[in-house]
Amino acid sequence: MKKRTTLASIDVGTTKVCTIIAEVDGSGGLRIVGVGITPSNGLHKGLVVNINEARESIRDSVRKAEQACGYKVESAYVGVTGRHVTSTNNRGVVAITHGDRLVRRDDLKRVLSCAQNIKVPSDRRLLHVIPRGYAIDGQMGIKNPVGMHGFRLDVETHIITAAVTSVQNLVKCIRSIGLDIEDLVLEPLASSEAILTLDEKQVGVILADIGGGTTDIAIFKEGSIWHTAILPVAGYQLTRDIAIGLGLPFDVAEEMKKRYGSVMPVYESKSETTSAISADGHGVSYQDLCDIVRARVEEIIRLILLEMPRSEYEELVPAGLVLTGGSSNLSGIEALGRDILRLPVRVGVPTTMTGISDILRDPAHATSVGLLLWGMKHEGRQLWKSRGLLRRFLSRIKNLFR
Ligand SMILES: Nc1ncnc2c1ncn2[C@@H]1O[C@H](COP(=O)(O)OP(=O)(O)OP(=O)(O)O)[C@@H](O)[C@H]1O
Ligand SMILES: [Mg+2]
After folding, report:
1. 16 lines ligand 1 (CB under 6 A)
2. Which is the CATH superfamily of the domain at 198-347?
């Protein structure tokens, strides 16, 4: 890019690829200057299934974003999702051995590397090791222990791993169009950055990004990540149900879903009557369409609930469920969620940016906006990673000779 005060993100979704280029202003705010959205090909349930098709979709999206602002993207934050992603919580403990018993940055590094000392099979790679909280001499709930005194430092971490091959395919697509990857970020973590409030994360909340191919879940408690999961069911399956159930071509079913789809029982719906509706020359009963949509969305919400402990989930997540992703545009989805969970439910739309952000004010863009926010938050830290340093050094040399 022209200068280092720009960031880019690429959300390679099952239905669309969205590239965003943003300028970071002096106060750390983001100004969106370029957006490129293209339909995605070569992806299924969040995974690359055809490298050539996926690469072309990504290339088109990046080109569009570049044309909008005149910047050249050299590297980007990229989202990862898919059923291959798994997560676990792990602990690390170290002794503080300095004479003054003061916790230093080095101790933090030591305890984190101790916590990630789990056996990762060779076909999986570590995606994130996120500290959830520290304890000094048994005193829990410490967010930043540097500068405090103690004999023993504990850390609770959330560890996320992904299948090497699935990640490699995505990395290959991005690299083959000449781009570097700043960081690979699990998509529900990115969406959370754009959608959840600090309060919600503190009291406990579930974020569910219901996209085209996957429903990405992140549960937060006491300001930290508690659980992440990816379900391989979302908007695509909804459309397929409609196509099969009502005997429609897939494209017509998709159009019907977006235009008329609702999860409200028909007698509560104000917009349409219970009569026939049509799209592209095909007519179906409004009630039949809504019955199919409601059944599948209800199933998705119940699957989200299964990610919670069987009992007392109300105490774990009193802030309830925040829905995002394109499929959360379905009318009546908040009310249906409240009926099932008996907790607050809202639909989250990314709003925290300036610039040409109007087109991004849709739940479908929670991940792409969240990737940028994640990038901004972690950029300083990323510089300390040796691979980041080396890559940046090589990239500077490359630029000198350009
Ligand atoms: N108004 C609407 N009503 C119902 N569904 C909608 C509406 N608008 C978009 N969708 C659905 O949202 C889905 C796309 O959402 P999104 O853009 O978040 O997915 P994605 O990021 O491409 O996929 P994924 O994250 O699952 O890989 C599609 O299935 C689409 O049919
Ligand atoms: Mg998505």
Report:
1. yes
2. ATPase, nucleotide binding domain (3.30.420.40)
pTM of the model: 0.90
237 in contact with ligand 1, CB cutoff 6 A = no
User: Nearest residue CA, atom 20 of ligand 1?
Assistant: 13
Strands (E), 13-166: 16-24, 30-39, 43-44, 47-48, 75-80, 86-95, 124-136, 139-142, 152-163
Tokens of 311: 């009992």
pLDDT (tens digit per residue) in 71-108: 999 999 999 999 999 999 999 999 998 888 899 999 99
Using a CB cutoff of 8 Å and minimum separation of 24, what contacts does 105-114 make?
105/146, 107/145, 107/153, 108/145, 108/146, 108/153, 111/153, 111/154, 111/155, 112/155, 112/157, 114/155
Domain boundaries, the chain: 6-74+351-400, 86-162, 198-347
Q: What CATH code is assigned to 6-74+351-400?
A: 3.30.420
Over the stretch 54-72, which tens digit does the pLDDT of each residue have? 999 999 999 999 999 999 9
The protein residue with its alpha carbon nearest to ligand 1, atom 8, reads: 326
* Domain topology for 86-162: Dna Ligase; domain 1 (3.30.1490)
Q: Ligand 1, residues 233, 258, 323, 347: which to mutate, most atoms within 8 A of Cβ?
A: 258
User: Using CB atoms within 10 A of its CB, is residue 386 exposed (0-12), middle (13-18) or buried (19+)?
Assistant: exposed
- Regarding the beta carbon of 325 and ligand 1, being less than 6 Å apart is answered yes
Q: Residue type for 371, please? A: L
